[in-house]
Structures are given as C-alpha cells and as structure tokens.
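Below is how a single chain appears once it has passed through the pipeline. First comes the sequence as given, then the structure the pipeline wrote out for it. We keep one example in the README because the format questions we get most often are answered faster by looking than by reading.
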Amino acid sequence: MIDVFKSLPTADTVVRAEAVAAMDGDASGAYKRDTITLGWEDRLKGRGRRKSDGGLEFGTTLPRGTVLYEGDALFVESLRLLVVVIERPEPVLVITPASTSEWGLYGYHIGNSHQPMMMTEQEIVCLDNIGMRQVLDQYDIPFVYATRPFTPIGQLADHRH
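Resulting structure:
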C-alpha cells in the first residue's frame, strides 16, 4: 500500500520532435534518453502515471489539449531525461477515395457516425472496431485492413445535444 503514495518524477513539458536534437547540443550536458510507446488514446492524456519502455515510472502533468506525436519527448527535468514518444501501431481500416465526391461522401458518413478518423493526402484511416466496420459496410465504402500508428484529427465529439 505504501507504494501507491511514492513520489514520482514528473514530466510537465513536451519537447517537440524538431527541438529534441537541439537539446543534445546544450552546453550544460547531454540528456539521458528513454522511449515510451503509446497508442492514440494515451497520447491524448495529459495527466497520469506512465511507465517508459525502459521501466521508469513517472507522472505527466501536461497542459490540457496536449497531443503527443512520434518523436516528441516528455522532459523529466529532475532526472535530466528525455522520454521520446513512439506511436504504437494499431489495427486500422484504410479507405482510399477515388474522387473528390467520394472524399466528401465518405467523410460525411464517417463523421456523422462520430468515429475518430485520420486523414492523409490519399487516405482516410479509421480504427478497426465493429462500429466502424458496420458504418463502412452499411454505405458500401471499400476499405482494407492495416496496422499503423493512428492519430485522429481533432478531439472526439461529445454526442450531447
């Protein structure tokens, strides 16, 4: 029971991927490194208890709305440690619209179902879950199964009216 109340080092700062390399050139000395592999839901949580891939337990107190991306680093100042984020590959459904009208129609149906989605230049990517598969089947939207990191656009809709 005492373990529950132990003090943890805390990361309250995110160093964006492009700034991580610059920190290594800091005159005050190099920072230790570790990694943490997170799925998309965990990359949206700013506060909580975490465990790095190397086994270090630490807390995060990040500003509300922080989204962690591949290569970002959680800065644990008390340990002079950068914990670099790795986006965990997850099962997804990949849709490749063939025309502008398909982009609009598919985006409308997916958005109307309040499912999280990610967009690239060529694809719409959704989490592989039963609800999403039902939407795609209902509207005859062609898709393929894949496994890749997933970062949805925006925050999830709160379906209250």
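Confidence is low (pLDDT under 50) at residues 156-161.

See the next section for the split statistics.
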